[in-house]
């Protein structure tokens, strides 16, 4: 964790500059890329420092933590749920989040559809894809995504905006490039606009490969304890 919350503004300035230069290298407009500041384990004072430095989008990976923090922070922020969502927790977050990054199974899609429709809402979501095939990672196998997408598209109350992946943890971010490229290709085939890919260790490469949302935690808030 950052030793002083003042470091957060400095870190953010550096991350934004990296995002900008990665975008320009790839011939993209920096404004196409949304920085999701991953605030898991960061207390509200730390998040306040990020908000003061202009952060508008926060990412949390646990429902309980997101629900506990939300009332402590100003309204109008965009909250992203980036971690696995248990089906029995859908009811708590259905009207609390801007985007779900981790739609990974039919049962979850059906529960979202049921809860959202009952309240006249539409939840925006990304399908999580396990491009690396690592057993420890969540997400659908790439080959299963087209049929899954076609089926969940029919559900009311749920709107699929794109795909999300976590690349394998590699020593050199370059090694993550093929996974990002594969996700972009899949999104292109399906006509999907958003790509949530890239974390502290690999977001520059992810942006070069088309990321529209990057999820960055430790590069902003410091290493998690
Ligand atoms: C924690 C987390 C991140 C951010 O990781 P950093 O390496 O701290 O940038 C991004 N995505 C998901 C799904 C996470 O759980």
UniProtKB/TrEMBL annotation:
Keywords: Pyridoxal phosphate. Transmembrane segments: none annotated. The modification N6-(pyridoxal phosphate)lysine is found at residue 40. The keyword Acetylation does not apply. It comes from the Bacteria. InterPro entries: Ala_racemase_N, PLP-binding_barrel, PyrdxlP_homeostasis. Belongs to the pyridoxal phosphate-binding protein YggS/PROSC family. Pyridoxal 5'-phosphate (PLP)-binding protein, which is involved in PLP homeostasis. This is Pyridoxal phosphate homeostasis protein. The lineage of its organism: Bacteria, Bacillati, Bacillota, Clostridia, Eubacteriales.
